[in-house]
């Protein structure tokens, strides 16, 4: 068992997810069976193989820094679950 | 022939000769939707009014210069369409109305295509059957008890059922080709970088590509023409000339060298699927191509490397769904962290949570080298397999999927079994190559797809091979009876 319930809880916190006790048990079981298969990759000696992050060798892509139209504020806020006076509204994060 | 059964190139002629109007065609397709959508459920959103209004406007202006002008198509629901709901089949985006168009949506509109609506999919494109939709499942038009494949299952089912003339899908590990195969239609995943991903809701950014799902290869070339090209809004799109793909619609494979990888025809591949692919190889030979068995030795490792890389990228991409700027925010939260966690826990379905967890774990401190870095190195090996093969061969052919469409519910309990249905398509995304799936036979009455893989940016050759095969066979003419 690679993944214990404690690991699931730690990773769920990193991923900002709540899991019920049942979900934690199921997640541990399913992730373990998936990771068991991942062990297959260790059959391959990759010590001299460079990693591929991207298939096309993309370098930094730059463009001229010119002023142009952007999304109007009302449009940008249109999908906001809560808004106030032209801002996204979130719970208080700074204590008095 | 009913209007809704026609292809793009067939209706284009009728529109050009003014034998029909765009409104006639759009109405015919909407009526077809009225007839069969209850059974298929391919659409998450149908924009009746918008589509009819657009068709009338096109008729009025009589500008049919665009290759898709006046022709009703459907768009997968992870591609942003301005002012038309785009949910990714996720509850967390259940109310999202994009304030902008994806570049491909813009290109369809510039071509005067009529957008009918948005198609169902596995939530955030994570799945192989469309059973992971956060809203409802889609059924295969060939057998309503079977899945249409996924994740672009709604697009493939809609094309097969005549609920649109063409559709767009997206493909991260097979999500265009596998459903096209299951539904007996044509699906093409372009080379990574050929089509702009701007406005495609990101799943795994180094693997995702948008592509056409159509009734035949000619239509595929027409849609690919319309959506390809460099875009300054996508820094990974490639700035090189786009050929006119209709010039590749030439029935000629004489002298073409075709590789047939043994790893794609062995264990786990259904007997009838294998036979259909071998028969396709013989068809190519009879048309003057040379087929040889080849080996792509790292094939089986590609699947497992993919299930590290794709979830890792997904865990990062899906961090943005936090209930702040858009999407659905959970009710009754306490502090900010509680808001994030409640929103995400209620908004994401089980497979999405599983992949976020897997990806977060693979990227977390202490495991990065063992999983993510290892998977990226294996990706290099997978790509080298193809590089070597393409030194000698023009295209590689294989099954698109190990089996024909499976039954609804058959694999939902076991993610590993579900993952296996993408074993033939995933290596292609890992290497960034273009590939097309075309109908090549039947297994117990269900369509079987042939995958033709090409060199990077050589969509032209796979289209030529596919077109040649299509002209020599009539699998693409078979339609499901609904």
From TrEMBL, chain A:
<dbReference type="GO" id="GO:0016740">
    <property type="term" value="F:transferase activity"/>
</dbReference>
<keyword id="KW-0648">Protein biosynthesis</keyword>
<dbReference type="InterPro" id="IPR036113">
    <property type="entry name" value="Asp/Glu-ADT_sf_sub_c"/>
</dbReference>
<comment type="function">
    <text>Allows the formation of correctly charged Asn-tRNA(Asn) or Gln-tRNA(Gln) through the transamidation of misacylated Asp-tRNA(Asn) or Glu-tRNA(Gln) in organisms which lack either or both of asparaginyl-tRNA or glutaminyl-tRNA synthetases. The reaction takes place in the presence of glutamine and ATP through an activated phospho-Asp-tRNA(Asn) or phospho-Glu-tRNA(Gln).</text>
</comment>
<dbReference type="Pfam" id="PF02686">
    <property type="entry name" value="GatC"/>
</dbReference>
<dbReference type="InterPro" id="IPR003837">
    <property type="entry name" value="GatC"/>
</dbReference>
<dbReference type="GO" id="GO:0050566">
    <property type="term" value="F:asparaginyl-tRNA synthase (glutamine-hydrolyzing) activity"/>
</dbReference>
<keyword id="KW-0067">ATP-binding</keyword>
<protein>
    <recommendedName>
        <fullName>Aspartyl/glutamyl-tRNA(Asn/Gln) amidotransferase subunit C</fullName>
        <ecNumber>6.3.5.-</ecNumber>
    </recommendedName>
</protein>
<comment type="similarity">
    <text>Belongs to the GatC family.</text>
</comment>
<dbReference type="GO" id="GO:0006412">
    <property type="term" value="P:translation"/>
</dbReference>
<dbReference type="GO" id="GO:0006450">
    <property type="term" value="P:regulation of translational fidelity"/>
</dbReference>
<dbReference type="GO" id="GO:0070681">
    <property type="term" value="P:glutaminyl-tRNAGln biosynthesis via transamidation"/>
</dbReference>
<keyword id="KW-0808">Transferase</keyword>
<dbReference type="GO" id="GO:0005524">
    <property type="term" value="F:ATP binding"/>
</dbReference>
<keyword id="KW-0436">Ligase</keyword>
<comment type="subunit">
    <text>Heterotrimer of A, B and C subunits.</text>
</comment>
<dbReference type="GO" id="GO:0050567">
    <property type="term" value="F:glutaminyl-tRNA synthase (glutamine-hydrolyzing) activity"/>
</dbReference>
<keyword id="KW-0547">Nucleotide-binding</keyword>
TrEMBL record, chain B:
<dbReference type="GO" id="GO:0005524">
    <property type="term" value="F:ATP binding"/>
</dbReference>
<dbReference type="GO" id="GO:0006412">
    <property type="term" value="P:translation"/>
</dbReference>
<feature type="active site" description="Charge relay system">
    <location>
        <position position="151"/>
    </location>
</feature>
<dbReference type="GO" id="GO:0016740">
    <property type="term" value="F:transferase activity"/>
</dbReference>
<comment type="similarity">
    <text>Belongs to the amidase family. GatA subfamily.</text>
</comment>
<protein>
    <recommendedName>
        <fullName>Glutamyl-tRNA(Gln) amidotransferase subunit A</fullName>
        <ecNumber>6.3.5.7</ecNumber>
    </recommendedName>
</protein>
<feature type="domain" description="Amidase">
    <location>
        <begin position="24"/>
        <end position="462"/>
    </location>
</feature>
<dbReference type="InterPro" id="IPR023631">
    <property type="entry name" value="Amidase_dom"/>
</dbReference>
<dbReference type="InterPro" id="IPR036928">
    <property type="entry name" value="AS_sf"/>
</dbReference>
<keyword id="KW-0648">Protein biosynthesis</keyword>
<dbReference type="InterPro" id="IPR000120">
    <property type="entry name" value="Amidase"/>
</dbReference>
<dbReference type="Pfam" id="PF01425">
    <property type="entry name" value="Amidase"/>
</dbReference>
<dbReference type="InterPro" id="IPR020556">
    <property type="entry name" value="Amidase_CS"/>
</dbReference>
<dbReference type="GO" id="GO:0050567">
    <property type="term" value="F:glutaminyl-tRNA synthase (glutamine-hydrolyzing) activity"/>
</dbReference>
<dbReference type="InterPro" id="IPR004412">
    <property type="entry name" value="GatA"/>
</dbReference>
<keyword id="KW-0436">Ligase</keyword>
<keyword id="KW-0808">Transferase</keyword>
<feature type="active site" description="Acyl-ester intermediate">
    <location>
        <position position="175"/>
    </location>
</feature>
<keyword id="KW-0067">ATP-binding</keyword>
<feature type="active site" description="Charge relay system">
    <location>
        <position position="76"/>
    </location>
</feature>
<keyword id="KW-0547">Nucleotide-binding</keyword>
<comment type="function">
    <text>Allows the formation of correctly charged Gln-tRNA(Gln) through the transamidation of misacylated Glu-tRNA(Gln) in organisms which lack glutaminyl-tRNA synthetase. The reaction takes place in the presence of glutamine and ATP through an activated gamma-phospho-Glu-tRNA(Gln).</text>
</comment>
């Amino acid at each position: 068992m690679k993944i214990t319930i404690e690991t699931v809880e730690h990773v769920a916190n990193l991923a900002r997810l709540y899991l019920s006790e049942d979900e934690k048990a199921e997640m541990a079981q399913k992730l373990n069976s998936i990771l068991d298969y991942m062990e297959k990759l260790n059959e391959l000696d990759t010590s001299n193989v460079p990693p591929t992050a991207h298939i096309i060798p993309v370098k930094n892509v730059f463009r001229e820094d010119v002023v142009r139209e952007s999304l109007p504020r009302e449009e940008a806020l249109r999908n906001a679950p809560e808004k106030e006076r032209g801002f996204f509204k979130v719970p208080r994060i700074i204590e008095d | 022939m009913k209007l809704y059964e026609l292809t793009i190139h067939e209706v284009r002629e009728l529109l050009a000769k003014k034998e029909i109007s765009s409104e006639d065609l759009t109405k015919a397709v909407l009526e077809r939707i009225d007839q069969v959508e209850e059974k298929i459920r391919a659409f998450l959103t149908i924009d009746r009014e918008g589509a009819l209004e657009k068709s009338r406007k096109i008729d009025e202006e009589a500008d049919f210069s665009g290759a898709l002008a006046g022709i009703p198509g459907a768009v997968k629901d992870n591609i942003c369409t301005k002012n038309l709901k785009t949910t990714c089949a996720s509850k967390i985006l259940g109310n999202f109305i994009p304030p902008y168009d994806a570049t491909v949506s813009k290109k369809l509109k510039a071509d005067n295509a009529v957008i009918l609506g948005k198609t169902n999919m596995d939530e955030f494109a994570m799945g192989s059957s469309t059973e992971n939709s956060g809203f409802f499942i889609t059924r295969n038009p060939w057998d309503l008890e079977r899945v249409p494949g996924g994740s672009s299952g709604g697009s493939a089912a809609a094309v097969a059922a005549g609920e649109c003339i063409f559709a767009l899908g997206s493909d991260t590990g097979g999500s265009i080709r596998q459903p096209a195969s299951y539904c007996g239609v044509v699906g093409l995943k372009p080379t990574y970088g050929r089509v702009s991903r701007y406005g495609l809701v990101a799943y795994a950014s180094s693997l995702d590509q948008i592509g056409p799902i159509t009734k035949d290869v000619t239509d595929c070339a027409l849609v690919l023409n319309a959506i390809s090209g460099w875009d300054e809004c996508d820094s990974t799109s490639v700035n090189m000339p786009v050929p006119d793909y209709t010039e590749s619609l030439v029935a000629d494979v004489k002298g073409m060298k075709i590789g047939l990888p043994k790893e794609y025809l062995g264990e786990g591949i259904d007997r009838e699927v294998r036979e259909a692919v071998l028969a396709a190889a013989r068809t190519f030979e009879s048309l003057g191509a040379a087929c040889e068995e080849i080996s792509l030795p790292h094939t089986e490792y590609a699947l497992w490397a993919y299930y590290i890389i794709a979830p890792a990228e997904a865990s990062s991409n899906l961090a943005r769904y936090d209930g702040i700027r858009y999407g659905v925010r959970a009710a009754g939260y306490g502090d900010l962290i509680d808001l994030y966690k409640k929103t995400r826990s209620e908004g994401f379905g089980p497979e999405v949570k599983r992949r976020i967890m897997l990806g977060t774990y693979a990227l977390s401190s202490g495991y990065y080298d063992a999983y993510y870095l290892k998977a990226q190195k294996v990706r290099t090996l997978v790509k080298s397999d193809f590089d070597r093969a393409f030194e000698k061969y023009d295209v590689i052919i294989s099954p698109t999927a190990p089996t024909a469409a499976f039954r609804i519910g058959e694999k939902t309990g076991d993610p590993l079994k579900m993952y296996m249905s993408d074993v033939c398509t995933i290596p292609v995304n890992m290497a960034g190559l273009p590939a097309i799936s075309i109908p090549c036979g039947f297994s117990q009455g269900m369509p079987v797809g042939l995958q033709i893989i090409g060199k990077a940016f050589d969509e032209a050759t796979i289209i030529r091979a596919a077109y040649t095969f299509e002209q020599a066979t009539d699998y693409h003419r078979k339609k499901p009876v609904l």
